[in-house]
Design goal:
The structure is a single chain. With 154 residues, this protein is an alpha+beta fold. It has one domain. It contains 5 helices and 7 strands; from the N terminus they run ββαββαβααβαβ. The strands form 2 sheets. Strands 2-6-5-4 form a 4-stranded mixed β-sheet. A 3-stranded antiparallel β-sheet has the order 1-3-7. The protein starts with a strand and ends with a strand. Pfam families: DUF3990. This is DUF3990 domain-containing protein. It comes from Simiaoa sunii.
């Protein structure tokens, strides 16, 4: 299976970076099955970036959490991760809280909207996908294929 990672640089050796803000599935190396989504990640700051491609070879011995769709469990998991709570999964896969969904999640976490209001707002969003790698062992399932420069006006 081919996965994509959008970045400001070519990333031949994926790594887990601790960022300023907690992400959907906590700190990790994030990829997607959707090249257009990775391209948006790559070009979001300067309009130019790199679409990195990897072969992903699943390893069933890893501790993997999959969310096939946005569910109550997914919302609670993302809310906990966004609040800084870590987890013990090597890999987490599921829908992404994009900019709009992120705002809804943050409003839910902050108590500004109810769970019901979150679901009413979220149901009209288009599908997204992310798979995040949280341990060094999980990163060994990725093999770099290539990185190509992309722009936001292609």
């Amino acid at each position: 299976m081919v996965l994509y990672h959008g970045s400001s640089q070519i990333v031949t050796e994926p790594e887990i970076r601790i960022a300023k803000f907690n992400k959907d599935f906590y700190f990790g190396f994030y990829c997607t099955l959707l090249p257009e989504q990775a391209k948006r990640w790559a070009t979001r700051y300067t309009g130019v970036g790199y679409l990195n491609e990897y072969v992903y070879t699943p390893d069933e011995s890893l501790n993997i959490k999959k969310f096939p769709e946005m569910t109550e469990e997914w919302l609670d998991f993302i809310a906990a991760c966004r609040l800084g709570k870590s987890h013990n999964y090597d890999i987490v896969e599921g829908p992404m809280a994009d900019d709009t969904i992120f705002n809804y999640v943050q409003n839910f976490v902050d108590g500004k909207i109810s769970r019901e209001a979150f679901w009413n707002l979220a149901k009209f969003k288009k599908p997204t996908h992310q798979i995040s790698f949280h341990t060094a062992r999980a990163l060994t399932t990725l093999s770099f294929l290539k990185g190509i420069e992309v722009t936001d006006h292609e």
